[in-house]
């Protein structure tokens, strides 16, 4: 299967349109207040309503109350959510949509408890103290091998047009996820970097 591409941290309609035109398969909308890529649910709803039918919108949350996630799902029409906090397996089972569970990988740390989760995919990002994502830093890719034994794997963390092809050749993930690696500044995507990134993914696959 072709490696799918998720462009995360969409904050405006122009960036969403650019990502779709470049060939993105999914767009991520971050609802973690106080982060540089936060988007209001009403603004996200307008963008999601204009997406073509084969581009998947993904709502990104971190330790939100389940009821709050459900309200945003209903308002924006998400069929997939990404949980980027310390959510337990039981928490994930409460949601009636597809769940991507993020694990932030520490260098030299123990492997995440993949076996405890029954989710649609695992997203592996880099652990940086005080940051939930968008750090631009990579992690040891061997962790992905253990994750693949339990489900689909999405690679994030420090990806950009220069390194994504090599990551795909090493890991063969279900998808790759990028935010800061295709930005001109936090929360604003760069059209050339978007095109170059997706072209590199397609070429590597």
Order of helical and strand elements: EHEHEHEHEEHEHEEEH
User: How many β-strand runs?
Assistant: 10
CATH superfamily: Aldolase class I
Widest sheet, order of strands: 1-2-3-4-5-6-7-8
Give the averaged pLDDT, no decimals: 92
Regarding quaternary structure, what we see is single chain
Corresponding CATH architecture: Alpha-Beta Barrel
Question: Largest sheet, described in full?
Answer: 8 strands, parallel, barrel
**Helical run tally:** 7
Summed up:
Helix content is 31%, strand content 22%.
Topology summary:
Blueprint: E1 4-7, H1 13-22, E2 26-30, H2 41-49, E3 56-61, H3 66-76, E4 80-83, H4 89-93, E5 98-105, E6 121-126, H5 142-148, E7 153-155, H6 164-171, E8 175-178, E9 183-185, E10 188-189, H7 191-204
Helix pairs in contact: 1-7, 6-7
Please supply descriptive tags for the structure shown above.
alpha/beta; TIM Barrel; 22% strand; single chain; 205 residues; 10 strands; eight-stranded parallel beta barrel
Describe this entry's structure for a reader.
- The chain has 205 residues and is of the alpha/beta class.
- The chain has a single domain (4-204), classed as Aldolase class I (TIM Barrel).
- 31% of the residues lie in helices and 22% in strands.
- The protein has seven helices and ten strands.
- It has an eight-stranded parallel barrel with strand order 1-2-3-4-5-6-7-8, surrounded by four helices.
- Strand 6, helix 5 (142-148) and strand 7 form a beta-alpha-beta unit.
- Helix 1 packs parallel to helix 7 (191-204) and helix 6 (164-171) runs parallel beside helix 7.
- The longest helix is centred in the C-terminal third of the chain and has 14 residues, at 191-204.
- The protein starts with a strand and ends with a helix.
- The mean pLDDT is 92.
